[in-house]
Amino acid sequence: MDPYVIYLTGILLVSFLLIIVVMVQNPKGGGLSSTFGGGANQIGGVKKTGDFLEKSTWFLATVLVALILLANTTLGGSSTDAKILQGTEQQDNLPADGGLPADTPATTPTDNAQ
């Protein structure tokens, strides 16, 4: 499997998780922790949910940026598309002396006059 496809799949997964984590948070300080009362005596540590969601947002954002950079480096590796975009594939067929490629027939103006 191509590394670019692996990175692209990771980008999509991390993006989806980041959307979910951001949607659960409340920008005014409430969010999931205020839904359960926010008291200090809550079972399961719901008071710390805000900290967990904030840390997971930063972590997922960092992973997303890293995956995007990695995908960008693998995109231009040995791809034929990158050569076409740069125009180097056409130059690969030319001989070193600057003449015509070997598979191109050489015609002169006198050949066409007959």
Write the layout of secondary structure elements.
Blueprint: H1 3-24, H2 31-35, H3 49-75, H4 80-86, H5 88-92, H6 109-113
Helix pairs in contact: 1-3
Overview of the structural elements:
- By secondary structure, the chain is an all-alpha fold.
- It contains six helices and no strands.
- Helix 1 (3-24) runs antiparallel to helix 3 (49-75).
- The chain is rod-shaped and about 90 Å long.
- Residues 84-114 are annotated as: Disordered.
Descriptive tags:
rod-shaped; translocation; mainly alpha; transport; 114 residues; 0% strand
**Broad shape:** rod-shaped
Helical segment tally? 6
Low-confidence residue ranges = none
What would you call the structural class? mainly alpha
Task: Profile the largest sheet.
Answer: none
What is the string of helix and strand elements? Answer: HHHHHH
Strand portion: under 5%
Number of strands: 0
Mean of residue pLDDT?
73
> Compute the gyration radius: what is it?
29 Å
